[in-house]
Write a structure and sequence with these properties.
The protein is mostly beta strands and 430 residues long. The protein has 2 domains: 270 residues, Jelly Rolls; 137 residues, Jelly Rolls, CATH 2.60.120. It contains 3 helices and 28 strands. It binds fe (ii) ion (FE2).
Length: 430
């Protein structure tokens, strides 16, 4: 698909109209909206949230969403989409790693069918925690999804996604991410076998991290986040709408698709971001900073500096530090770390951690470079070196993850993982 038109910015007040003259001027809900449209507000924060955190969008649409959302919903069973720590199973304090799961081709599976939850924490009703999903699908959604339990951060790993939202279209491919607001209808089109990682964020909406001494430039720059322009279905067709609500899925059939927004303005908007635009900061002397320096987006918790979830990437970058063990050091962290690999190699695990694979190092679970990476990094000549053609990422959370039944017993768990450190002998020279 050719590049779509986009608006630029993150958290900005944006505005778009698919039909000129439909966006009200000077007021949000005039007595009559142009061309017979209805005004509708979607809020992403409490009305009284501080201005910097306040998010809402006004939509001007052909029918208010209560028309399509007010009909009776029936349960839609989904065996592998889990929500909140209560739906996890007892998880051992081991380092855990998974092989890439194949994308089933035996029958059509859309984005909803394809959700396989790997790890959960928190509680969607308490607006805390996240769920980490792998989505394995091969067919475009012919239905819409409205997720009341959280925003969806999508990290494509294989295959491009074209996402229709109430506010317009986004096209993402591996290397990009998409962030879809809580409660906004969307559907995902794919063009073949597709694998994506998804963070379903039940907590505070993702935002750009503060920059502190870094200053006004660097990491992910706001203008590189792209929002859709307004677009609506010219001839709305009957459609199934699926709602995720309280950890369960519900379905109903509606007479017209919810993609009927002709104009909108606000700062609660779906966005996409190309991780190639991330300005990486690192040491230019010795040692390396904490991996928080790689944070793209953060969902804060109610404790300052302690994230409900940080989305962190490890993109291509130069390593130039002198007298330094350059891969990540051995560590046990209070935060819990879920990792995925979009493509290439991760420097702490040159083998075994494959694109499409996953790892989980929960709170206080020790981990670090495998024996091969340790030997190589300890003896390498420290010339400037570029880690190229690689993109790993992390969903890091203050809440310990519980794995799902599918994750622990679905066949992809790498039982050999703990052995990757077994040859790290006692090297002490007494
Ligand atoms: Fe780690």
């Amino acid at each position: 698909m050719s590049e779509l038109p986009y608006l630029s910015g993150f958290g900005n007040q944006l505005a778009s109209e698919a039909v000129p003259g439909t966006l009200p001027v000077g007021r949000n809900s005039p007595q009559q909206v142009a061309r017979g449209l209805y005004a509708e507000l979607l809020s992403g924060s409490a009305f009284t949230a501080p201005r910097a955190e306040n998010r809402r969008t006004w939509m001007y649409r052909r029918q208010p969403s209560v028309v399509v959302g007010g009909t009776a919903y029936e349960p839609l069973p989904h065996a592998t989409w889990k929500t909140g720590a209560a739906m996890g199973v007892e998880t051992p304090p081991n380092p855990l790693r998974w092989h890439p799961l194949p994308i089933p081709a035996d029958q059509p599976r859309d984005f909803i069918d394809g959700v396989r939850t790997i790890a959960v924490n928190g509680d969607a009703d308490a607006h805390s925690g996240i769920a980490v999903h792998l989505v394995l699908c091969n067919t475009s959604m012919q239905r819409a999804l409205v997720n009341a339990d959280g925003e969806m951060l999508i990290v494509p790993q294989q295959g491009a996604l074209t996402i229709q939202t109430e506010l317009g279209w986004l096209h993402v491919r591996p290397g990009d991410i998409a962030l879809l607001p809580r409660g906004m209808a969307f559907r995902v089109e794919v063009d073949g076998p597709t694998r994506a990682y998804v963070c379903e964020n039940h907590g505070a909406p993702f935002r750009l991290p503060e920059l502190g001494p870094i200053g006004s430039n660097g990491l992910a720059n706001p203008r590189d986040f792209l929002a859709p322009v307004a677009a609506f279905d010219a001839e709305p067709q009957p459609m199934e709408v699926v709602r995720k609500f309280g950890g369960s899925l519900w379905r109903t059939q509606v007479p017209a698709s919810p993609f009927d927004v002709v104009a909108w303005h606000g700062n609660l908007v779906p966005v996409k971001y190309d991780t190639a635009h991330f300005m990486v900061i690192g040491s230019i002397s010795f040692d390396h900073p904490d991996p928080s320096i790689f944070t793209v987006l953060t969902s804060p918790s109610d404790t300052p500096g302690v994230a409900n979830c940080d989305f962190v990437i490890f993109p291509p970058r130069w390593l130039v530090m002198e007298d330094t063990f350059r891969p990540p050091w051995y560590h046990r962290n209070v935060m819990s770390e879920f990792m995925g690999l979009v493509h290439g190699q991760y420097d702490a695990k040159p083998e075994g951690f494959k694109p499409g694979g996953m790892s989980l190092h929960n709170a206080m679970v020790p981990h670090g470079p495998d024996a091969e990476a340790f030997d190589k990094a300890s003896n390498a000549a420290l010339a400037p070196h570029k880690l190229d053609a690689t993109l790993a990422f992390m969903f890091e959370s203050r809440w310990r993850f519980k794995c799902t039944e599918f994750a622990l017993r679905g066949g992809a768990l790498d039982a050999t993982y703990p052995a990757c450190w077994s040859t790290l002998g006692d090297r002490f020279e007494a």
